[in-house]
Design goal:
By secondary structure, this protein is α/β, with parallel strands linked by helices. It is 24% helix and 35% strand. Strands 1, 2, 3, 11, 12 and 13 form a six-stranded mixed sheet that branches. A five-stranded parallel sheet has the order 5-4-8-9-10, with helices on both faces. It has a two-stranded antiparallel sheet with strand order 6-7.
Length: 208
């Protein structure tokens, strides 16, 4: 693992993520950069600014419910507030829920169903580099009778398998040599480069 590099966006660069070069293993892929989004997920001011930026993209989209994944509920709460304060959703009571994920499938208990069935649902997640998590969640929203109106993420790639509009704060284009590989096709593994850390929505754990 190499030193961190900060990427910033928003008013006066108020939203930042840390980018670390190396060899990392995620659930779905191997990647050559870890994008650490801990501060956006955990700090009030940064979460609020990220939500403000997201709301600018969705203020003219009707939203009844925001589904948050990957520890994004604080950002989702600020986003619901911002959307209900202006635009087409003004004074609308927007729900924010976090479903269970089992075997990569979204599971909604009966008490959550009214927030999705016949509702317009916006998906909010931290990372969408391969598109698999977003596509699975969109499929789940439709399975439970909801209408997915879009997906929004802190860091994402250009993919088209989710069939909804995607808004991101940072993209792979901000990291020029960013690459994601299926584990069996990873060139770093083939060269014998050891995995530096395992990465998931909670962060990363170094492999000693």
């Amino acid at each position: 693992m190499k030193e961190r590099v900060e990427l910033r966006t928003g008013r006066n660069g108020a939203v930042s993520v840390s980018v670390i070069a190396g060899h990392f293993a995620t659930k779905h892929s191997h990647i050559n950069y870890c994008v650490d989004m801990t501060r956006v997920k955990s700090e009030l001011k940064m979460a609020r600014e990220a939500a403000r930026m997201f709301s600018e993209s969705w203020c003219n989209t009707p939203v009844d419910t925001i589904i948050t994944l990957e520890r994004m509920k604080m950002v989702g709460s600020f986003l619901a507030r911002d959307l209900s304060n202006s635009g087409i959703n003004v004074n609308h009571d927007i729900a924010v829920i976090t479903p269970e994920i089992t075997d990569d499938k979204m599971l909604l208990r009966d008490n959550f169903l009214p927030y999705v069935k016949h509702q317009r649902v916006l998906l909010l997640t931290a990372s969408a580099s391969t598109g698999m998590t977003v596509a699975s969640a969109i499929e789940g929203i439709r399975y439970y009778g909801g209408e997915p109106v879009g997906a929004t993420t802190i860091f994402g790639a250009a993919f088209h398998n989710a069939d909804v509009p995607l808004v991101k704060l940072f993209g792979v284009e901000d990291i020029p040599d960013y690459a994601s590989y299926a584990p069996v096709e990873c060139p770093l593994c083939k060269k014998g480069v050891k995995v530096d850390a395992v990465v998931n929505s909670y962060g990363y754990s170094k492999i000693v």
